[in-house]
Amino acid sequence: MNDLILTFNTGSSTVKIGSFECDGSSLKKSAKAGIDFAASPLNFHMERGKERLDIKLQAQDSADIVAVLSEVFDKLSTHIDLARVKAIGHRVVHGGDIFAGPVLIDEKSIQAIDDLSAYAPLHQPKCLALIKAIRQLFPDILQTASFDTAFHRTMPDVIRRFAIPRAMHDQGIKRYGFHGLSYQSIAQQFNELKPDLGRKKLIVAHLGSGASICALENGKSVDTSMSFSTLDGIPMATRCGNIDAGVLLHLLSQQKMSTDALTDLLYHRSGLLGVSAISGDCRELLVSDTPEAHQAIELFTTRIAGEITRQATSLGGMDAVIFTAGIGEHQPEIRARIARKLQWLGLELDNAANKKNAFCITQETSKIVAFMLTTDEERVIATETLTVLNQSSQ
């Protein structure tokens, strides 16, 4: 019986795996797992009901993705009947202007995804390697791709444009936006939980090691902070966020920095890590006594609050703010600091609710309501995988 859908959510250093039981059009998450490529040795963890597994992998080199996946599927097979797998769905970071929705993975789509690798060098090649490895190991299992950029295709043209020659825009140098699967998850969940607010003017803060802000109206993307690449917008754990292009010209021309060194600087040595010189993890910075750590947190929360107000202009107002992802869901102090910077807009935080990670974290008198909501990208991927399968069968 083929009634399982697996999802692979590939990040820059981790892969989150979801297992969903499929009954017609309904999906039930039965297990979740992950591979931590930053760990040494590589680590595989899994949660299935009350069962918890944490296993060190024998595969030594994360570059040998076939060997890693072969071992991971071997571990999975002792807990999940892989013969039941109906399809495997993948999160693909960049779909460019080619993909406006999920697709069945075939030679043509693989080539198109590969052609977009230059736009997302940190994520796209790793995801492609995973797709190809699964094809090699399980050639009969169908695979689908869900794109982070697709959700933002509803942004107006004026929002998507940089102030550069039109020919360059037409060549693909434009604002694409990312974290789309997360925003899609939040939009759907929030509309179900708060139908009175779900179609109004919302701003969602996806705050994790990668972080961005998205303005939603009628559940659709109107504006977002990440643009051409996953570097832009607010500062992140190790990524710079918005930076004057003149700084980059200076580093390249005056300091003779190579493009590889510049890439490493902007992606891996900037953000919270760069400012604090301690860590890119907010939890470590919040307990640190150093002025550099304090400044990193202040910069982070100030830029987030500023981006929220900028996107309120794109919306022509703001009814609610929703915090999600690792930091947004689990770090009340970060939420509190951002909320204090938005007090002038009429946002009144409920400190007790915020500390408890409650759903609604503002007082009843607050003009702007704030919420905390757990994102579920894997469920969006599984749902889109099921949609693609149904369409292909027809």
Automatic annotation (TrEMBL):
Keyword terms, alphabetized: ATP-binding, Cytoplasm, Kinase, Magnesium, Metal-binding, Nucleotide-binding, Transferase
Keyword DNA-binding annotated: no
Residues of the active site: D148 (proton donor/acceptor)
UniProt pathway annotation: Metabolic intermediate biosynthesis; acetyl-CoA biosynthesis; acetyl-CoA from acetate: step 1/2
Cofactor note: Mg(2+). Can also accept Mn(2+).
Cellular localisation: Cytoplasm
UniProt keyword Metal-binding present: yes
Predominant subcellular localization, coarse grouping: cytoplasm
HAMAP family: Acetate_kinase
Complex and partners: Homodimer.
Name of the protein described by the UniProt record: Acetate kinase
Organism (species): Paenochrobactrum glaciei
Gene: ackA
